[in-house]
Amino acid sequence: MVEATPLDEGWVLLHEGASLPAAVPGCVHTDLLAAGVIPDPFLGRNEPEVAWVGRREWTYERDLDVSGAPHEQTDLVFDGLDTVAEIRLDGRLLGRVRNMHRSYRFDVTGLAGRLTVRFASAYTEAEAVRGELGERPGAYAEPYQYVRKMACSFGWDWGPTLVTAGIWRPVRLEHWSTARIARVRPLVTVEDGTGVLELRLDVERTRVEADLTVEARVGGTVARAAVDGTTGVVRLRVPDVALWWPRGYGAQPLYDVELTLLHGTDRLDVWRRRVGFRTVELDRSADEHGTGFTLVVNGERLFARGVNWIPDDVFPSRVTRARYERRLRQAADAGVDLVRVWGGGIYEDDAFYDVCDELGLMVWQDFLFACAAYPEEQPLRGEVEAEARENVVRLMPHPSLVLWNGNNENLWGFRDWEWEGPLAGDSWGEGYYLGLLPRIVAELDPTRPYTAGSPWSGSWDRHPNDPAHGTHHSWEVWNRQDYAEYRASVPRFVAEFGWQAPPAYATLRRALPGEELAPDSPGMLHHQKAEDGNGKLNRGLERHFALPEGDFDRWHYLTQVNQARAVAAGIEHWRSHWPVCAGTVVWQLNDCWPVTSWAAIDGDGREKPLYHELRRVYADRLLTVREERDGGLVVAVVNQSGEVWPGALRLRRMNVEGEVLGAAEVGFTAGRRAVEAVPVPRELQPGGPKEFLVAEADGASRALRFPAPDREIPYPRPRFEVALVPGGIEVTARTLVRDLLLQADRLHPAARADRGLVSLLPGERVTIGVRGWANPDAAAARAALYCMEPSR
Questions:
Q1: Which of 579, 581, 588, 586 is nearest to 617 (CA)?
Q2: Alpha carbon 212 to its chain's center
C-alpha cells in the first residue's frame, strides 16, 4: 500500500543569517509575525511597513532522509507552493515551479540531505514575464496577471497588499511499489432513478509488466475492471439512489466511494471520496425577455440565493476546516444556497467543498482570472492548462459544484474598460475563456455546465454585461446612483451587486487601537481600499438621511442601515420577478481582514446588519411591495418553498404617529416556487412623507413601504422600554421605532445578537437574543440600541 509521511515539522525559515521556526503549511508573513520580526499588518497602518517582505527571496529548509525506505519509489509531494520556487535536496535540483494553484511531485527515491525550497519574489517573476510578453491592462497597477498566484494578495478594493510566499499547503512523502493511483475522474449522473458512477483512473507504475485490476465500492454496489496499461474505467449502477439536493429543496445524502488498485490480491493503493447523485443543467434558452440563465438541479428550476466568496484570510494557510464550517454555516443560516468562489482568489481547500456538500450549498467555481488582460503565451499558457486540468479533476467528486466559470469581468473589461486600443491585437485571455477552458471542462467534466465569464451575455453580438442576456454585474448603482435604481431593470441573473459599510464597532476598536474613530481618521481611511469609498458612502447616505456631522457612532449606524437597505432593495425586486430573474449573488459574504467593504460578515467574523437582512430577504417566503409602471403598488408574495402558500394578506395604511388610516384583507394563493402579485387598493397607498404601508401574512416577514426618504419623514422621537429577559432583552415600542439595531459587540466584544434591523409599530415588542454577554445590564443594552430619529 501507498504509505504517506507528513512533512509538517522540522522546517526553518532563513532570515538575515538566522533560522526562524517555520509553520508548514504557512507563509513567510505568518512565520515572521510569530517570530516578532514584523508587526501585525492587519492593525492600524502597519500594512505598508511589511511591504518589503513581498520583494525578498525566502528559503525554507529541513533535513530529509529516505535512503532506507523499503518501497520501490518515494515521492516528495507538495500540495501547494506559493509561488515561484526552486526545490533542491542535498544540493541536487529537483525542480522549479511557478504556480500557486498546482501540486507538485518529485522522485526522491534513496536520497538524503538538506531539503531547501527557495522562493523568488512574485514581483520579480511577474515583472520578468511582463518584460518578455509586454504590458497588459488591468484594474489595478500591481502585476498580478503575469503570475499564477492569488491575485488579491497584490491588493484589491477590499484587501491589503501583502504579497506572500511559502509552503502554503501540506507536504508529505509517499512511498509505493509496483503502481499507484495517479488520478481519478468520477463522472456522476442519474438515469431513471439509478445512480451511475463511472470512475476513470490513471495509474503510475514502477513495473510495466504487472497485471493490475481495480475494485470499486459505493452504496453496497461492487464492480471490478482491468487496468489497460496506465488507464482503467470501472462503472457502477446504484439502484433507487437518494438524490443530493441544494439546501431548502431536499436532503444531502452522500455516498462513500472506495476504489482499490490491486495486483493479484495485493492492495497497492486506495482512493476514497464522497459523492452525491444529482443532475445539474444550465438553461440558457432564448425567450421573449432575452436569454435566460437558470440553474436546474434534478429537474427543479431554481432561483439562486447566492453570495460571492473571497479568500477568508489574506494568508489562506490560516483558514482551517473549522473556520470554513463557521463561515459557511453562517451563509446557510442566512438562507444562502449558492456560493460563488470568485476568480481573484484560490481554488479552495477540499474542506471548503466538503462542507458545502454537507450543507447543500451549491458552488459556482470561477477559474482564476479577474479584472485584467491575461497573456496567453508561454510560460503562462502551459501553467493555466495544467492548473485547470488538476483542479477540475480534484473538485469533480463534490456534488455541491454546479458551475464552472471562465473568468471575472475580463470579457466585460475588454469591451468597456478601454483595453482594446492599448492591447493592439495582443492576447488578453479570450482564448482561455472561449477556447481552452471549455475544451478542458468538456473533456474532463462533461456532467457540469461551463460559462465563459461573469458577466457574459453569451455572444459578442451583444454587450457582455447586457442585463437581458445571461449574467449581469450591477455596479453603476453603488458607484454613481441611488440604490432605488436596482428597481429600474430585471436582469436575467445578477451575479454581482452590493453596497459598502464599515465593520462592527468592536472590529474597528481591535483593528485601530488607540485611534479616535471618525469616518476620515487615518486608520479608517487606510482600512478603506475602494476608490473614493467614503465619498460614495456619504453620497449614498445623503440621498436618504441628513449626514451626521461629527457623530461617528451615528454615521456608523446609518452606513450599516444603508447597506442592508440597498442590498434588500435589489434582492426583493429581483426575486419578485422570478422566473425572469433567476438568481442574485451578493457581493460579498466575507472579508479577508478588518476593512470597510461590501461584506455581510466582517474580517473578525462578526455579522453586520446586512447579514441578518439576508436572512429575511433570502427566506423561502417573502413579502415585498413593488411599484408598477402605472404608479400603482402590488405586494409580491414570493414563495420559494415546495408547498403552495394560501393565505390572507393584511394591508394597513398608517401614519408615523401610529394611526391606522385604512385597512383591508386580501386572499392570495402563491404556488410552489412561484410569485403571486396582489394589487394594493388605491385608497391604501400611502400619500406623502407622513404615511406608510404595512403588509403582513402568516409565515412571512412583514413588508413596509415608505414613499419618501428618511430625511423627509417627520418621525416622532422614538420611545421604547428595555427589559432583561432570559437569553437577551425585550424592547417594547411606545411610538413607531424604525430600524432598531442592537450593536451587541458594544456590550462585549464576544457578544452576538440573533437579529439585526427590526421596525416596531406602537405597542409592539421584540425579543433580541444575546449570547456572549457575561453581565447583562438593561442600561448598557439601551445605550447599544440605535434607531431612526427625527431629522435635525
A1: 586
A2: 42
Cβ–Cβ under 8 Å, residues 388 and 285: no
Helix (H) or strand (E) holding 705: strand 703-705
Residues 6+ apart with CB under 8 A from 288: none
Cis peptide before 776 (omega within 30 of 0): no
- Where are the alpha helices (H) located in 543-638, listed in sequence order? 552-575, 609-617
Residue 109 Cα distances to 76, 79, 574, angstroms: 9, 19, 60
264, with CB counted inside 10 A (0-12, 13-18, 19+), is exposed
pTM: 0.97
Pairwise CA distance, residues 338 & 124, whole Å: 38
Q: Which of 334, 269, 274 is nearest to 306 (CA)?
A: 334
C-alpha cell belonging to residue 608: 453586520
Question: Stretch 610-618: mean pLDDT, rounded?
Answer: 98
- Quote the pLDDT of residue 700: 73
**Position of cell 422614538?**
718
HEC secondary structure over 221-266: EEEEEECECCEEEEEEEECCCCECCCCCCCCCCCEEEEEEEEECCE
The whole-number pLDDT of residue 792 equals: 61
739 in Cβ contact with 788 (< 8 Å)? yes
Closest listed residue to residue 102, CA positions, set 375, 290, 383: 383
- Residue 83 near residue 316, CB atoms below 8 Å: no
Residue 69 has pLDDT above 80, yes or no: no
217 alpha carbon, distance to own chain's centre: 33
d(CA 468, CA 490): 8
Can you tell me whether residue 782 is helix, strand or coil? helix
Q: Which candidate, 510, 473, 187, 159, places its Cα nearest to that of 306?
A: 473
Strands (E), 587-673: 621-627, 633-639, 645-655, 660-670
Residue with cell 455516498: 255
